[in-house]
């Protein structure tokens, strides 16, 4: 390894050792870019998934900025209007596409929460922003209610304590609520925003009175064909939602073929790990505590042949500046079907789901610093800074039984990482000082 002058090491560390305090105002350039970004769309694709990640996270930035400054003008148009237009785009599809798809999230549950949680957060923030909500017609607000109910039903089916299914609402895609964070936390965020949108008692009453056929008729009338097609692709889903029962993992699945799982359906009050809809902070705290749960380390032994390492794209460092501090993201030290996993990509996927929910809770006053929020925020500072450092250096990872390499420009920016990190830096405490002086080989 080439020796670098010590002054360069200090310059590399300077932004990390003396971070600025969060401003609570999203940088203007990021807001403007988010507002100009086209609205996201979704569609139901059999046995696959369709996402638009940068567009989705631009929606979250727009919703947060509009909540704070609805009359702020970008290119001659207020942020309130930008948000209303983005919402209208996926709430109203006048004519279905030739493939039968529409614009709204397909409310599949599980890993669909990579992006489905953001429209739920955006609708909650819009409902609490009169300058946005007043721009939506009665029909569009009714559609907003319908979409939020559909997303909440998917959360109930996948996450409720009375359900233990291994499939999502297409009756095919594999899932279990005990799996890694990126499978679970998105729809936890959805049930939180749905409870705050309707009120917990009203949402539970809706669950208890749910009728599949009547709801399907409402979906059809709204031309929400993505949801309609997803929920009817496997005809068994209707009775599972209404009455509960068992379902067998399809034989076409690569894993867990023939496994029989059961549940009680969605016609009951929602709880997760005993936590009710009346406790949105507790629902989020459990996910955030699990996500930012590791002591930071850079060299993780996956097996006798592989140890993770930095790729030194920006410096000769061999360790994260926060080595040993609590808060490293779960997926830098976890497992998958093929054994041990240490992955910068999976780590980001957890962060990109968590941060929009956390920001929404801060904006609507549900973040509770006295009941764990301060601890989570400190751990978040370590975890997000550690992830960004590894991403910019490049991180040699191991997942699904293979070595993989990830770095910032190629792998994270195209997924909307600048929006996610911009939200974290705006609303949450900066990272703590590095653990130790810069370490080189």
Let me know the number of strands.
15
Overall number of structural domains: 2
Strand order of the largest sheet: 10-14-15
The whole-angstrom Rg is 22 Å
Query: Mind summarizing the main beta sheet?
Result: 3 strands, antiparallel
Class inferred from helices and paired strands: mainly alpha
Q: Whole-number average pLDDT?
A: 93
Shape: globular
State the distance separating the first and last CA atoms.
7 Å
Bin the strand percentage: 5-15%
The count of helical stretches stands at 17
Task: Give the low-pLDDT segments.
Answer: 1-21
* Helix proportion: 40-55%
Keywords, separated by commas or semicolons:
single chain, about 450 residues, mainly alpha, 2 domains, three-stranded antiparallel β-sheet, two-stranded antiparallel sheet, 15 strands, about 50% helix, about 10% strand, globular
């Amino acid at each position: 390894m080439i020796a670098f002058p010590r002054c360069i090491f200090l310059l590399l560390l300077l932004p990390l050792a003396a971070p600025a305090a969060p401003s609570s105002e999203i940088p203007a350039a990021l807001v403007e870019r988010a507002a100009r970004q086209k609205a996201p769309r979704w569609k139901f694709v059999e046995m696959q998934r369709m996402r638009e990640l940068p567009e989705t996270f631009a929606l979250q930035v727009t919703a947060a900025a509009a909540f704070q400054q609805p009359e702020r003008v970008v290119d001659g148009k207020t942020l309130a209007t930008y948000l209303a237009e983005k919402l209208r785009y996926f709430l109203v599809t006048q004519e279905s596409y030739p493939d039968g798809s529409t614009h709204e999230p397909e409310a599949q549950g599980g890993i669909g929460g990579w992006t489905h949680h953001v429209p739920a957060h955006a609708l909650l923030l819009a409902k609490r922003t009169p300058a946005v909500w007043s721009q939506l017609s009665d029909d569009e607000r009714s559609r907003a209610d319908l979409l939020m109910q559909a997303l909440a039903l998917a959360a109930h089916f996948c996450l409720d304590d009375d359900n233990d299914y291994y499939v999502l609402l297409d009756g095919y895609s594999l899932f279990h609520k005990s799996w890694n964070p990126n499978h679970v936390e998105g729809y936890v965020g959805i049930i939180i925003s749905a409870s705050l949108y309707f009120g917990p008692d009203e949402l539970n009453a809706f669950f208890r009175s749910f009728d599949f056929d009547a709801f399907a008729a409402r979906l059809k009338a709204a031309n929400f064909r993505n949801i309609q097609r997803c929920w009817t692709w496997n005809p068994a889903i209707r009775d599972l939602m209404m009455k509960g029962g068992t379902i067998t993992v399809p034989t076409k699945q690569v894993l867990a073929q023939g496994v029989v799982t059961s549940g009680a359906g969605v016609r009951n009050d929602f709880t997760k790990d005993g936590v009710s809809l009346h406790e949105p902070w507790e629902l989020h705290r459990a996910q955030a505590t699990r996500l930012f749960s590791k002591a930071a380390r850079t060299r993780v032994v996956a097996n006798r042949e592989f140890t993770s390492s930095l790729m030194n794209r920006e410096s000769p460092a061999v360790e994260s500046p926060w080595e040993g501090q609590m808060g490293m993201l779960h997926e830098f030290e976890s497992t998958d079907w093929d054994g041990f996993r240490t992955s910068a990509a999976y780590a980001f996927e957890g962060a990109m789901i968590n941060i929009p929910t956390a920001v929404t809770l801060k904006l609507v006053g549900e973040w509770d610093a006295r009941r764990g929020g301060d601890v989570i925020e400190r751990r978040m500072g370590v975890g997000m800074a550690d992830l960004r450092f590894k991403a910019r250096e490049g991180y040699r990872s191991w997942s699904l039984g293979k070595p993989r390499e990830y770095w910032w420009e190629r792998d994270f920016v195209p997924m909307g990482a600048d929006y996610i990190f911009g939200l974290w830096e705006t609303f949450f405490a900066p990272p703590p000082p590095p653990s130790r002086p810069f370490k080189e080989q």
